[in-house]
Design brief:
Helix content is 33%, strand content 20%. By secondary structure, the protein is α+β, with helices and mostly antiparallel strands. Strands 1, 2, 3, 4, 5, 6, 13 and 14 form an eight-stranded mixed sheet that branches. A hairpin with an 8-residue loop joins strand 3 (86-88) and strand 4. Helix 10 packs across helix 12 (364-376). The relative contact order is 0.16. This is Probable tRNA pseudouridine synthase D. Belongs to the pseudouridine synthase TruD family. Residues 169-401 form the TRUD domain.
């Protein structure tokens, strides 16, 4: 199998599944080259509905050069409310044109602000706020600039059809942005949290200089690693590294010596980011499990004995098949053929765990993989019993990501739709065969 880029391997993505050299090129030359639009799945009432019964205002925002967290923070600041009163269903990147829903607690339609990088329209009201996963998926339209082999897209598609058992598909990896594109450390922070090492978690974020970031940032990280001088480090960390500076202010105030001081510093992050750290640790273990399954030559589009499968979501539209991870089926040896037929008809999906306290690992060879990965990471499911916002429930995730691409040329443009929680970059990496920083 073709080995992945070093940065990808640092987050558990070890291989490509296609051998074709791919198209080359780069993405995000300009925000309009990367368009993302949510496939919405959230019921609303009219905007003039009784706010006593429907206290959440729902808006649809198209963002240009602004990520989801930045929009929520600027929106909240402009209105004069806590950012925690702004929620959404999925996080989008900065270097794109993205369209998604947001919900805002206790806000009237005429209070919606005007923001320079966002077009905002009022959709209606709801009795609850948006939560992660409150969408079907995302539609992508992506331009590849300076592709050296644009005709290679067809050959890649053919290989991905073979991998997917007749439908183009890739392993359902968590993409590089889950861990940090230039400095992939969020999973290292999360792994330290899960192990109860609060100081290690803080230093994983403050330290860990990356060759892909500016030299001034690298020097500041090296300084804090060597000295643990929080106050002096504040003079060295660039102001653009606001999360790091906020943690350093906390460490100056508390002294930065006891475990609770380091936990307090981590809790300066917004709650959704605190959850992200542990989610990234779960995601890293998941990626490692998929890479090992690939290396062993086990199929992704159909089960082997010992797998845990889930069935399709019966509430999803017929044209948009989604896995329902709450409807599990353990695949015993005498059920492999039956569940395999369901998988080929898009009625079932092979899964792997996002490990939590109550995770029941698979049996057979897949179970061996899961136990080996956790042992290598020095983790057991019980370690995920964590305080506050760091807690993250266990679940399962389909290991195969099917998609149906439309390919246009001059310039090379790929359009496809993916289910919620999946990453366009894990599709695009197979086509471009470039490093993750070009994605």
């Amino acid at each position: 199998m073709r080995r992945a880029h070093d940065l990808e391997r640092s987050v558990g993505i070890e291989y490509y599944v296609s051998e074709t050299d791919g198209t080359g090129g780069r993405l995000r030359d300009r925000p309009a080259d990367f368009r993302v639009k949510e496939r919405e799945r959230f019921a609303t009432e009219a905007s003039d509905a009784d706010p006593g019964d429907y206290p959440w205002l729902v808006v649809r925002a198209t963002l240009r050069g602004m990520d989801t967290n930045d929009f929520a923070r600027e929106f909240a600041n402009r209105v004069g409310i806590s950012r925690e009163r702004v929620t959404w269903a999925g996080t989008k990147d900065k270097d794109a044109v993205t369209t998604q829903l947001f919900s805002v607690r206790d806000l009237d339609p005429d209070e919606v602000p005007t923001l320079s990088k966002a077009e905002i329209e009022v959709v209606g009201r709801s009795g609850r706020g948006l939560q992660f996963g409150d969408l079907l998926g995302n539609e992508f339209e992506i331009v590849v600039r300076d592709a050296s082999r644009p005709d290679g897209a067809g050959a890649v598609t053919t290989e991905l059809e073979e991998f997917g058992g007749g439908t183009p598909a890739v392993p359902n990896y968590f993409g590089q942005q889950r861990f940090g594109s230039y400095r992939p450390v969020t999973h290292e922070v999360g792994l330290a949290v899960v192990r109860g090492d609060w100081e290690g978690a803080v230093m994983a974020y403050l330290g860990n200089p990356s060759e892909y970031e500016p030299e001034g940032s690298q020097e500041a990280r090296r300084f804090v690693e060597e000295t643990r001088d929080w106050e002096a480090a504040l003079d060295r960390f660039p102001r653009r590294l606001r999360y790091e500076r906020t943690m350093l202010h906390s460490l100056v105030e508390t002294g930065g010596r006891a475990p609770e001081d380091f936990r307090t510093a981590l809790e300066t992050f917004p709650e959704n980011v605190q959850r992200l750290f542990v989610n990234a640790a779960q995601s890293y273990a998941f990626n490692r499990m998929l890479s090992e399954r690939l290396e062993r030559g086990l199929p992704f589009h159909e089960p082997v004995a010992g797998d845990v499968a889930c069935f399709a979501d019966t509430d999803a539209p017929d044209a948009f098949v989604l896995p329902d991870v709450d409807r599990e089926q353990r695949v015993s040896a005498d059920r492999v053929d039956v569940v395999g037929r369901h998988c080929r008809r898009n009625r079932a999906f092979v899964t792997a765990p996002l490990v939590g306290t109550e995770t029941e690992l698979a049996d057979g060879e897949q179970g061996e993989i899961e136990r080996e990965v956790l042992a290598e990471l020095d983790l057991v499911p019980e370690d995920f019993d964590l305080p506050g916002a760091f807690g993250s429930p266990e679940t399962r995730r389909a290991i195969l990501l099917p998609f149906d691409p439309t390919i246009e040329h001059e310039p090379l443009t790929l359009s496809f739709t993916l289910p919620t929680g999946s990453y366009a970059t894990v599709v695009l990496r197979e086509f471009l065969k470039t490093g993750p920083l070009d994605l």
